[in-house]
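Batch job 17 of 40 flagged for manual review because the log was empty.
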Amino acid sequence: MSLAFAFDLLLLAALLALAWQILSARDLFKAVVLFMAFGLLMALAWVRLRAPDIALAEAAIGAGLTGALLLDAVGHLDVARNGATTREPSSSLAEEE
């Protein structure tokens, strides 16, 4: 077995493991971070398939832009769940001084 084939098998196993973790993650933040890591590993898989143009698009759009938008959406969900639109400093600490 060559080193390249072993690397390809390791990459496949990592992609499958990440996909399973993304689907089974209960925390949205964790799922988004794992999705971004999955996108970067997919970009590496495209490089191994000798498709650098698709690899660049996957890294930029799949992991970068989509990941940033999903992280922003998760942040807005957390704010909506807490019922506050802005975070203010705690007034209890200011009153104690």
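Reviewer: the log was empty due to a logging misconfiguration, but the result itself is present. The helical segments are 3-24, 28-48, 52-82, 91-96. Unflagging and moving on to job 18.
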